[in-house]
Give the backbone structure.
Amino acid sequence: MFRHFDEATAEDWKPIDEKFVIYQQGLAGQLVAHLQALAHHDLGYPVDRYVHSLQTATRALRDGADDEMVVCALLHDIGDTLAPVNHGAMAGAILAPYVSPLNVWMVEHHEEFQGFYYAEFFGQDKHARNKYLNHPAYDRTAMFTDLWDQKAFDRDYDTLPIEAFLPAMERIFARTPWGEHTSAGTGE
C-alpha cells in the first residue's frame, strides 16, 4: 500500500474505487443519519431542525413538487450543525452533484430569501433578496421559502416521517453525479 499518491499504482487504486462505489450507494442513508442529528439541535425555534426539515419536505410533497425539489426541501438545513452561519452553502454543496444548478442556487440562497420574514428584527434589510430579482432561480427560491420553509415551524402540522422521503432520496442519490467521469469520487 502506498504512503503517498505519487507511489500508488492502478492496483492500489482498485480496492479504493470499489469501497467508494459501495460508500456512494449508501449516501442516502448517511444523509438521513446526519439529518437526524438535527433533532438534538435546539436553537429555540418552535420545532427542532429535524422536524422543520421533515415539515418543509412534507409541505413540498403535498404541493406536488418533484423528487428533486422534495429532497432539496428535506436537506436544505442539513448544514446547520456544522455551518450555522452559511448552512445553505453547505447543503448546496452536498446536493450539487445530484440536482439541477437552479435548485442548488435555491438551497444556497434560501437563508437570504427567508430573511424577508425576520431580517428587520436583527437590523438587516428584509428586502435583501430583491437584488436577485433577475436571477433565473429567483421565483423558485421565493416559492420555496414563502410556501414551505418559513411555514415549517408548526408543532401541530401533520408532518410525514423520514420513511416517506426515502424513495425520493434513493432515486436522487442513485443518479450519476453531474460531471462525473470515473467511478472513483476522489474529486481530484
Remarks:
- The first helix runs from residue 10 to 25.
- Confidence is low (pLDDT under 50) at residues 181-188.
